[in-house]
Design goal:
The protein has 91 residues and is of the alpha+beta class. Helix content is 37%, strand content 11%. The longest helix is centred in the N-terminal third of the chain and has 17 residues.
């Protein structure tokens, strides 16, 4: 499956516009930690016990802000993050 980057941009802009129209200025997350499946196990469905990793939304957000602050391109590890793996294949 391929998804056009411009389409992703348009969907995100629409989402942000709808939040703005509804007066939503921040998003409150009630939990920090989540389960993630190790990258090598994400597409291997024959493995009955995939390796689980604990992720942190706070850590993820801080990493994203650092990437933006550095004004550099995102590293390939970031593109393999669970938040992005459904958009991009790991490089």
């Amino acid at each position: 499956m391929k998804i056009n980057v411009k389409e992703i941009e348009e969907l995100f802009l629409l989402l942000f516009q709808r939040m703005s129209d509804q007066g939503i200025e921040e998003i409150n997350l009630d939990v920090d930690y989540y389960w993630d499946v190790a990258s090598e196990d994400r597409v291997e469905f024959n493995n009955e016990e995939p390796e689980l990793i604990v992720g942190s939304l706070i850590d993820d957000w801080e990493s994203l802000k650092q990437e933006g602050d550095a004004k550099k391109s995102f590293c390939t590890d970031l593109l393999d993050h669970p938040c992005f793996h459904f958009f991009c294949k790991p490089l």
